[in-house]
Design brief:
The chain is an alpha+beta fold. The chain has 2 domains: 52-176, PGBD-like superfamily/PGBD (Muramoyl-pentapeptide Carboxypeptidase, domain 1, Orthogonal Bundle), CATH 1.10.101; 202-315, Alpha-Beta Complex (endopeptidase fold (from Nostoc punctiforme)), CATH 3.90.1720.10. The chain has 11 helices and 8 strands. Strands 3-8-4-5-6-7 form a 6-stranded antiparallel sheet. The radius of gyration is 27 Å and the shape is elongated.
């Protein structure tokens, strides 16, 4: 009997040891692949990027359900491919680069609960990290306190909404689509102001074209008039508005305005119209090229005029 008891005790001890080793190994592996997506700032991540931001982006893509992602802090071609799929899904430009708007969309992805002062939990932390990515820096505490309320109010005011300080479905929607207004630092604002002063001496057409160039890579949305999504006439309307000219939001309406320009006398910034019935418009960019918002799934960019049926041009 003693011998049997000894054997049983030995077996139990061996099993306990095996379980301890197994659990320890699993815990070590889990710790090695742990994710920290609550960063103090979110830098641009692209193919070849390394470090905390790269690993955070990998973790978020993995959590979003994209397979084959290695959470090793080295942003590879595989991660770029997954990122483009995510950007396409949320209707951001498929750049394969994690810029500020993509960070906001990745960090806020998920449910859209109503959050207000005093709330706690993972959803609050998700909101705080997304707001940090918009430039409204917050500690990711998971508690909806005064700082979080003020950041939400700042976002709502920037969107032109009533500043309630509550994270409603509308707040989540602009975050998850990447359409949330980015808060610019004072240094960047000063730089932007200096750039605007450099427009002095330029023609209206050059000012309009310069504005349109800044929208390259933005997505196409029917009826879009900015700031991050456009249709063809929405882009040209905003571009010429920058030059001080008011135009209607339609290709046909813009065609009926301004001075008629011959194809041989085109200058940068002139609006160029295409297709029978005047159903498309772009901005002449020189060298036979047009800058335009073309169609869904195709970001704002250049095209050679010869690829579309030319109907006429206007200068304002």
């Amino acid at each position: 009997m003693r011998r049997i008891a000894k054997i049983l005790l030995s077996g139990v001890a061996s099993l306990a040891l095996a379980l301890t080793i197994g659990i320890g190994t699993s815990a070590t592996a889990e710790a090695a692949s742990s994710c920290n997506t609550a960063l103090k700032s979110y830098g641009t991540v692209k193919k070849g990027s390394k470090g905390k931001s790269a690993k955070a982006a990998e973790c978020l893509l993995k959590k979003a359900g994209y397979s084959g992602i290695k959470k090793n802090g080295k942003f590879s071609a595989r991660e770029v491919k997954a990122l483009k799929k995510f950007q396409k899904k949320v209707k951001l430009a498929k750049t394969g680069t994690v810029n500020r708007r993509t960070w906001v969309a990745l960090l806020s992805r998920g449910s859209k609960p109503l959050l207000k002062y005093g709330k706690k939990g993972a959803a609050v932390k998700r909101l705080q990290t997304a707001l940090t990515a918009t430039g409204r820096k917050l500690p990711a505490t998971g508690y909806f306190g005064p700082m979080t309320r003020d950041a939400v109010k700042s976002l709502q005011r920037a969107q032109g909404w009533k500043a309630t300080g509550k994270a409603t479905k509308g707040v989540w929607r602009v975050l998850q689509s990447g359409d949330a207004k980015i808060k610019t630092s004072k240094a960047k604002k000063a730089k932007k102001k200096a750039k605007s002063s450099s427009t002095k001496g330029k023609s209206k057409g050059e000012i309009a074209l310069a504005f349109a160039k800044k929208q390259i890579g933005d997505r196409y949305v029917y009826g879009g008039d900015g700031p991050n999504a456009w249709d063809c006439s929405g882009l040209t309307q905003a571009a010429w508005r920058k030059a001080g000219v008011k135009l209607p939001h339609s290709a046909g309406g813009q065609y009926r305005k301004g001075k008629k320009v011959s194809k041989s006398n085109l200058k940068k910034g002139d609006l160029v119209f295409f297709y029978s019935g005047i159903s498309h418009v772009g901005i002449y960019a020189g060298n036979g090229k047009v800058l335009h918002a073309s169609r869904p799934g195709k970001p704002v960019g250049y095209i050679k005029m010869k690829y579309m049926p030319y109907q006429g041009a206007r200068r304002y």
